[in-house]
C-alpha cells in the first residue's frame, strides 16, 4: 500500500458518514411533516426554480421522471404544489408551490439552517472556509475525472 493512501483513507469515509448523517436528520424532519425525503427535496427544487418541468426536477433530485411523477401526484393531492400546462410545450407540465407549500419550504429552510449550525458548531469561520474550499476542490477534481473531461482531453 502506498504510504499516502493510509493517511488519506479517512477522508472518503468521513465525507460519506457526514452525508449519511445529514440525510438521516433531514429524513427524520421530513417524516415529522408527513413527507418522504424525496418529496422534501422536490419541494425545495420547485422553490429554487419555479416553473420547472418533471424532467428537470428528476435531474435536480437525482431520480427518474416516473418516480418524480408519483412524487408530484402526492404533493399535489396534499395541496403543496399545483401543476399547469407549459406555455410552449403542450406535452409538458410545470409545477409551482402553493401557499401551504411555500410555508413548508420555509420550515425546511429553517430546519436546514439549524442542522448546518449544529453540524458546524465549534468550527471557527476560518475552519469553515477551509472546509468549504477543500470540499469544493475535491468535488471539482472528481468532476474533472468524468467521461466529459476525458472527451475534452481527447479533443485537445
Key features?
single chain; mainly alpha; Arc Repressor Mutant, subunit A; 8% strand; globular
Structure characterization notes:
- This is MarR family transcriptional regulator.
- InterPro entries: HTH_MarR-typ (IPR000835), MarR/SlyA-like (IPR039422), WH-like_DNA-bd_sf (IPR036388), WH_DNA-bd_sf (IPR036390).
- A three-stranded antiparallel β-sheet has the order 1-3-2.
- The protein is globular, with a radius of gyration of 19 Å.
- The chain has seven helices and three strands.
- The mean pLDDT is 87.
- The protein folds into two domains: 3-121, Winged helix-like DNA-binding domain superfamily/Winged helix DNA-binding domain (Arc Repressor Mutant, subunit A, Orthogonal Bundle), CATH 1.10.10; 124-156.
- Helix content is 72%, strand content 8%.
- A hairpin with a 7-residue loop joins strand 2 and strand 3.
- By secondary structure, the protein is mostly helical.
- Helix 2 (37-48) crosses helix 4 (65-77) and helix 2 (37-48) packs across helix 5.
Amino acid at each position: 500500500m502506498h504510504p499516502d493512501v493510509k493517511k488519506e483513507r479517512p477522508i472518503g469515509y468521513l465525507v460519506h458518514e457526514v452525508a449519511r448523517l445529514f440525510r438521516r436528520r433531514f429524513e427524520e424532519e421530513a417524516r415529522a411533516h408527513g413527507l418522504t425525503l424525496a418529496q422534501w427535496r422536490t419541494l425545495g427544487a420547485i422553490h429554487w426554480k419555479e416553473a420547472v418541468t418533471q424532467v428537470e426536477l428528476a435531474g435536480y433530485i437525482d431520480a427518474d421522471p416516473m418516480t418524480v411523477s408519483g412524487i408530484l401526484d402526492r404533493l399535489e393531492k396534499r395541496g403543496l404544489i399545483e401543476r399547469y400546462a407549459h406555455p410552449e410545450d403542450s406535452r409538458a407540465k410545470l409545477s409551482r408551490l402553493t401557499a401551504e407549500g411555500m410555508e413548508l419550504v420555509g420550515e425546511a429552510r429553517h430546519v436546514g439552517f439549524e442542522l448546518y449550525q449544529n453540524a458546524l458548531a465549534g468550527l471557527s469561520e476560518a475552519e469553515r472556509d477551509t472546509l468549504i474550499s477543500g470540499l469544493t476542490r475535491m468535488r471539482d477534481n472528481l468532476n474533472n475525472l468524468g467521461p466529459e473531461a476525458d472527451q475534452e482531453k481527447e479533443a485537445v
